[in-house]
Amino acid sequence: MALDKGGQAGSKITPMTHQTDIITLPHGRPGTTRRLTIHRFGSCSGPKAYIQAGLHAGELPGMVVARHLLDHLIRLNAEGRIKGQVVLVPMANPIGLDQVLLGGHVGRFDLASGVNFNRSFADLGDTVADALRPGDLGPDADANRRLLQRALAKAAASLQPRTEADALRKLLLSHAVDADYVLDLHCDSEAVMHLYTTPACWPLGVADLAARLDARAVFLADRSGGEPFDEVCSTPWDRLRAHYGRPDTPIPVGCSAVTVELRGEADVDDGLAAADAAALIDHLCWRGIIDAPAPAMPDLSDLATPLAGVDRVRAPVGGIALYHVSLGDRVQAGDHVATVLDPASGERHPCRATSDGLVWSRTQCRYAGPNDILLCIAGRQVLVTSGPLLTA
Ligand SMILES: [Zn+2]
Q1: pLDDT digit string (tens) for 40-56?
Q2: Tell me, what's the pLDDT at 7?
Q3: Is 385 part of a structural domain of the chain?
Q4: Is 245 helix (H, G, I), strand (E, B) or coil?
Q5: Can you give the residue ranges of the Succinylglutamate desuccinylase/Aspartoacylase catalytic domain (predicted)?
Q6: The domain containing residue 371 runs over which residues?
């Protein structure tokens, strides 16, 4: 693959517009079709933001937020205030939306393969690196950013999926991988508002997003494993910068990607969603993508903790989980935070915190299997030194 050095991103200006694409996924089974709807606002000039909701199809809060975002963007577009490009995918997983098994919705894993829908995205960093030739990069960081964004988009376009789920992954990635900002809207089981991002992205404006959303926790990892969507958008830039970035060929943090966890699965509330959407629009204003004032926010730079520092308190045996702490509680190492009760024997098994920190998530299901995660604490000390950092 040769890098496309022509056509500066800012040189092709299209009229301010709202375009809706409805795309049928390839590789479906005979007689079936699933469609993905993508909204695009603005022009091809200026910064690009990509926002999607519902990659885990059972996580509904983000889809309600996306509906509010769409209303905002239609209005802002009519007012001519969208200065860059905003791509919004309100329901990112039509495959998962269609998976109902024995009366229950299964939106996290692809039933055909067992693979988590937010894993196994193509990491295109090596493909782009292999295509780099001496002289491709120059002294202008913005020009290098545009060059590499086009190369990433070209690499995404060349992917050859063979299943419907991988076709969906390619389609989503193709619209996001050349964006300057990527927001992937999810939720946890029961949780406070929290974010995942990388150490490179965090100091470059993600703290503003955290403040606007009133996030209570932010988790940082250079690479958490498994190729989740946000990391295949952001981390190729880290590796390209490490290998090719020099004072005479600077490579910026080309894509600020964040997974936004909009509390818990049951936090489906129109009022909350409206406030969250307003916060995201304010963040886009602050980023300069939308031409409207955004109030200043407090500095939350101390909020972030290492993803490897998350204390995942697990059930020592199977039984019924009884929690002794609530979301948002601060605990200390050694605190008795939960009990697993075996109702047959009457035995009670205490579960204790390993770290000091904030209780940021609990598992909704109180029927715990041996070693199941019961709740998570945002600790500052690294506990995991190898292996993947995310749960299944
Ligand atoms: Zn999710």
Answers
A1: 999 888 899 999 999 99
A2: 36
A3: no
A4: coil
A5: 46-225
A6: 308-378
Q: How far is the CA of 246 from the centre of ligand 1 (A)?
A: 36
Residue 391 is predicted with a pLDDT of 87
CA of 53 to the centre of ligand 1 (A): 9
Task: Kindly state the average pLDDT of the residues 175-202.
Answer: 98
CA of 171 to the centre of ligand 1 (A): 18
CA dist., res. 5 & res. 146, Å (int): 9
Residue 15 pLDDT exceeds 80: no
Distance (angstroms) between ligand 1 centre and the Cα of 140 equals 37
Separation of CA 392 and ligand 1 centre (Å): 10
Residue 361 token pair: 């998530």
Whether residues 362 and 216 share a domain: the answer is no
Is there a domain that residue 97 lies in?
A: yes
Residue at which a domain ends, from 251, 279, 302: 302
- Rounded to whole angstroms, the maximal C-alpha distance in the chain is 73
Ligand 1 centroid distance, CA of 186 (Å)? 4
Query: In this structure, are 118 and 44 located in the same domain?
Result: yes
Domain identity same for 344 and 282: no
Give the C-alpha separation, 293 to 236, whole Å: 32
Cα angle, residue 93 at apex, residues 83 and 63 outer, rounded to 5° = 60
317-376: pLDDT as tens digits:
999 999 999 999 999 999 999 999 999 999 999 999 999 999 999 999 999 999 999 999
Tokens of 295: 């109030």
**Spacing, Cα 134 to ligand 1 middle (Å):** 40
Among the ranges given (1-15, 44-58, 267-281), the one the predictor scored with the smallest mean pLDDT? 1-15
